[in-house]
């Protein structure tokens, strides 16, 4: 028994040692070449050796068992990518490893030369895009964390400033503290320094100018060296073209993105679904809502494969900052009741909003919402009538493949776990996660349960839209299939 234990422990330490050899390669590609590496969508940036091993183990489970992905193969691929003078790409080593092994090719350089042929070579003349966060609440601070975490020395998104209304002499310190510590998402990963004289926050080397203003049109961003900026409005104060258009009157602004559903003719964008429809004339855009982002990709995949006749969406949603902690006056009566003590029935526009990204769903969906006493992570229950009869196994296997290999892989994830609960999805970076064990199928009737981190998962979608309109969204390797081809 002791010998078995010693052997198992030795094998474990060998795996740890092998994973440790990957860390400098992953970091070099990210810091010097703007190449993000992942294992079936699970980013490897800034992971420990243990977490890298876990990512490989998870890849084995999600790929349907078998031999999985070897650390040695990952190292071989990483070393070959480092030898290539490329920039700005999202490289899935899990998918590449499977393709490489299946090809029987022994020349990794030739294999990668073919796979990465559409990735650009480094261009020193390339620049990034300036980003300004107008408002610094729940979504604003998460966007700041993501943008700082993804900050690059080369072309990419540059968080340059946040704009808020001043609330006292210690406002700057309090804003920094809220960025530093979060009761839901944990501590900021890195260091934060405050400069009161210059009104700046230095976060992991990213210098963020704090600008105090309550008038979007009057801010002169150019005086801070900010030009052609994308302003991300997180306040929700304005949702129409007239209100949001005030940002475009400010010096140094080129585009505006709203982190809430837009009204009127504003294009509501769900990344992965209709981001290709964005034109140069779209100066004001909306990233829709967290729920719309959570359910639209799943609905699109189902409609493409099986056809959706009609359905109802019931969201079980964590309480939000617009509710009262204890009973008090609120313009929406039920939201005035204590958020931490009650399930609160309220409305959601997500069902109708789906049709703004997917016009074919116009008039097909109804929806309602129940706010519950949890601070983050929500669930959408999709009760659908399909055009064809399906089985639970058929739907689950299709969505699992979509989550692994399709062009919606960044938006859809799939899990099968008997004990998984909402807190397990805090910090999950995909828009929606299908809970396969909960799927119910009976002929043409289908019920799906889709988890989503309504704060972090949504914020990741917002950043993808910013990358798109900023022209810095990375090339994807290997090429992802259409949902019908998985």
What is the secondary structure topology, with strand pairs?
Blueprint: H1 2-20, H2 23-33, E1 35-39, E2 42-43, H3 49-62, H4 71-82, E3 89-92, H5 93-103, H6 108-115, E4 129-134, H7 138-149, E5 157-164, H8 171-180, E6 192-195, E7 200-203, E8 206-212, E9 229-233, H9 241-244, E10 253-258, E11 267-268, E12 284-286, H10 290-305, E13 308-318, E14 344-346, H11 350-357, E15 365-372, E16 378-390, H12 392-405, E17 412-415, E18 432-435, E19 440-452, H13 456-470, E20 475-477
Parallel strand pairs: 1-3, 3-20, 4-5, 4-9, 5-8, 9-10, 10-12, 11-12, 13-15, 17-18
Antiparallel strand pairs: 1-2, 6-7, 7-8, 13-16, 14-15, 16-19, 18-19
Description:
The mean pLDDT is 92. Helix 7 links the parallel strand 4 and strand 5. The protein has 3 domains: 114 residues, no CATH class; 132 residues, 3-Layer(aba) Sandwich (Rossmann fold); 164 residues, Dihydrodipicolinate Reductase, domain 2 (2-Layer Sandwich), CATH 3.30.360.10. The chain is an alpha/beta fold and 486 residues long. Helix content is 32%, strand content 24%. The strands form 3 sheets. The protein has a 9-stranded mixed sheet with strand order 6-7-8-5-4-9-10-12-11. It has a 7-stranded mixed sheet with strand order 14-15-13-16-19-18-17. Its EC number is 1.2.1.12. It comes from Gulosibacter bifidus. InterPro entries: GlycerAld/Erythrose_P_DH, GlycerAld_3-P_DH_AS, GlycerAld_3-P_DH_cat, GlycerAld_3-P_DH_NAD(P)-bd, NAD(P)-bd_dom_sf. Belongs to the glyceraldehyde-3-phosphate dehydrogenase family.
